[in-house]
Structure formats: C-alpha cells, structure tokens
Amino acid sequence: MPKSKRNRPVTLSKTKKKGREHKEAIVNAIRHAAENYSSVYVFSFENMRNLKFKEFREQLKSTSRFFLGSNKVMQVSLGRSAADEITPGIHKVSKLLRGDTGICFTNLPKEEVERLFNEYEEYDFARTGSMATEKVELKEGHLEQFTHEMEPFLRKQGMPVRLNKGNVELVSDFVVCEEGKPLSPESARILRLLGIKMATFRVHLIARWNPEELELYIEKPDDSDVESA
C-alpha cells in the first residue's frame, strides 16, 4: 500500500487520560494495519456474540486484523476526508462506518474473504427484545423436560404450572412467544430452558477497498448519514 501518513497528530478531546490513551492505541493500531495489509473490508453484523466473533477472528489471525468499537475513532484513524486521510482514497472507507460496523484488514484473496464471510453464521439463544422467529406454544399436561425443583422458577416466568405427584404439570396451554414479536425477559429465559435458539450471528460485507478501487457490496450510505468525529 502507499506510504502512510499515520504519524500526523490526532486530537481526541473530552476524554479521561485512560480513555484517551486507549483510543490513541486503537488509532495507531489501525494506521499500522493500513500499512501492512493489502485490502480493507467494511462489514456489518447482527446478533453479535463476542465469544463467537472471537473464534471467527482467530481463524483469520495469521492473515487478517479486525477492529470493532467506536465508529468515530475508526473514522479518525483512517481520515474522514481527502485532506486528512492516511492513505490516498482510504477516507472513502470512513464514510461507510456507521451503525454496527467493523473493519477487517487482510492479505487474503478477495474470493476467500467473500466465501468466509458469506458462509459464516452461528446460532444462539435470543435475548430480550429480539424478534421471535416462530411461535412457540406448550400444551397442557406433564412437562417432562423440567424437574420438580424448577416449578417455582417457571411460575415466576408466568407459566401456569403446578406439581402433580412430583412432576411439573402445565394446567393450560401456554404461548411462550409469537412469531415477529419482541421477546420479553421471561420468554427469553423459557426459550433457553427449552433449548430453542432463535438468534443467528452473521457478518455481512459492505465494501472492499484497496489503493486501486472501492467495491461496494451494498448500497452506499449518504455522506450526511456518516457520524461526525
């Protein structure tokens, strides 16, 4: 990649000393990566799971470097315009950093990066507020998946249960969640107990950049939507 201008001083005001030092470390790390990798990818994510993402990142550790966090800090690191960009043209990447996004510096071939991102997905239990992907209803009768010790806890989750000869019994049909509606804290807990996973952690490519071109995988956001530093 072209020679970097990463030694240019950057002002990160209104932060405590520890916070400023942390942000400056991120700025330096991003600028160092811009010098040492051939391409930059902007990606978005949904249903982020830190442990799952760490595993994904570890798979590419030898060839790539990922950055997540404050979009503003990442924008400042790369440069927000042609006047302050660290490498010619890389400010175009900054304009794509909004919402739940991150950047990946890599030396992998384009086809390999696209395959890895497009194929990656991990299922997990949905959290409170997530949209239910299906209707889950429990029918009246014996709930063999629950032990008698769990009966008080299930009642606290709003389930109409009782103990019948040491067994947990549902006294009437009970709807845990409705498809397309947000999960309550109680619904999320019950789904976890039932082993039903409704959240899918995915990463989506937004754009690929190198000194020769910027390739968009989705529609480019308006410049006015980009967060200011």
UniProtKB/TrEMBL annotation:
Keyword entries, A-Z: Cytoplasm, Nucleus, Ribosome biogenesis
Subcellular location: Cytoplasm; Nucleus, Nucleolus
Assigned GO CC terms: cytoplasm; nucleolus; preribosome, large subunit precursor
Chief location: cytoplasm
Pfam families associated with the record: Ribosomal_L10, RL10P_insert
Region (Disordered), start-end ranges: 1-22
Composition skew (Basic residues), residue ranges: 1-20
Keyword Ubl conjugation: no
GO BP annotations listed: nuclear-transcribed mRNA catabolic process; ribosomal large subunit assembly; ribosomal large subunit biogenesis; rRNA processing
CDD domains reported in the protein's UniProt record: Ribosomal_P0_like
Quaternary structure and interacting proteins, as annotated: Associates with the pre-60S ribosomal particle.
Function text: Ribosomal protein P0 is the functional equivalent of E.coli protein L10.
Protein family (similarity comment): Belongs to the universal ribosomal protein uL10 family.
Entries under PANTHER family matching the protein: MRNA TURNOVER PROTEIN 4 HOMOLOG (PTHR45841:SF1), MRNA TURNOVER PROTEIN 4 MRTO4 (PTHR45841)
Protein name, entry field: Ribosome assembly factor mrt4
Naturally occurring in which organism (per UniProt): Juglans regia (English walnut)
